[in-house]
Amino acid sequence: GQSLEQPSEVTAVEGAIVQINCTYQTSGFYGLSWYQQHDGGAPTFLSYNGLDGLEETGRFSSFLSRSDSYGYLLLQELQMKDSASYFCAVRNRGGSQGNLIFGKGTKLSVKP
Amino acid sequence: SQTIHQWPATLVQPVGSPLSLECTVEGTSNPNLYWYRQAAGRGLQLLFYSVGIGQISSEVPQNLSASRPQDRQFILSSKKLLLSDSGFYLCAWSTSSGANVLTFGAGSRLTVL
């Protein structure tokens, strides 16, 4: 089977740093992505890791270790607007047939 | 620039009634198209994806079907809705080579009573 595991909820205070972990078990692996979804809204793309290492985009960073089937999303200088659900997703096939399998999401609550 | 439109935004349907959700993409050609469903407080479940006109792949056998009559049009249908079909339905597109980056429509919230 295919599965992605991430914590269901995380709480942090404004200005802090939070790390959301994701472990995966899939039939194929062609990259790990992260998406943000505010309540009632649609998911939006945050970052992508195709190779091991850290990718940085402003206050957000994402890390991948393919040997450990593990990745994380790091959010720095947390702001109230970062309160949302965060999903990791794995592309399980290559080429034009690839599609994303999503985790169940981590609900991040940022407190003042 | 590319845009994705999805409608209707909300609908309430009785059990046993038909369903049609429509999604169109503008500003790109030959996109990969996807239908996802999100149950309340849950993750996104891939229902169907399409890499071209008339090419539909089903990820989860169920009461739903999808069609792609035109390059940038993707339709999700059901002949008879079940209570368990309630949820938030999301259409998305990606380039054929960039399937890690999905752009989602605003979603359609379906309640089956």
Written account of the structure:
The complex is a heterodimer of chains A (112) and B (113). Helix content of chain A is 0%, strand content 55%. Chain A is mainly beta. In chain A, the strands form 2 sheets. In chain A, strands 2, 4, 5, 9, 10 and 11 form a 6-stranded mixed beta sheet that branches. Chain A has a 5-stranded antiparallel beta sheet with strand order 1-3-8-7-6, with no helix packed on it. Chain B has 113 residues and is mainly beta. In chain B, 0% of the residues lie in helices and 57% in strands. Chain B has no helices and 11 strands. Chain B starts with a strand and ends with a strand. Chain A binds chain B through residues 30-31, 33, 35, 41-45, 48, 50, 87, 89, 91, 96-105, and chain B through 32, 34, 36, 42-46, 49, 51, 57, 59, 90, 96-97, 99-107.
Global morphology of chain B: globular
- What percent of the residues of chain B sit in helical stretches (DSSP H or I)? under 10%
Topology order of chain B in helix (H) and strand (E) letters: EEEEEEEEEEE
β content of chain A, as a range? Answer: over 45%
- Main pleated-sheet profile of chain A: 6 strands, mixed
- Give a quick account of the main beta sheet of chain B: strands, pairing sense, barrel closure: 7 strands, mixed
The N- and C-terminal alpha carbons of chain A lie at a distance of 40 Å
Q: What percent of residues of chain A adopt helix (DSSP H or I)?
A: under 10%
Secondary structure category of chain A? mainly beta
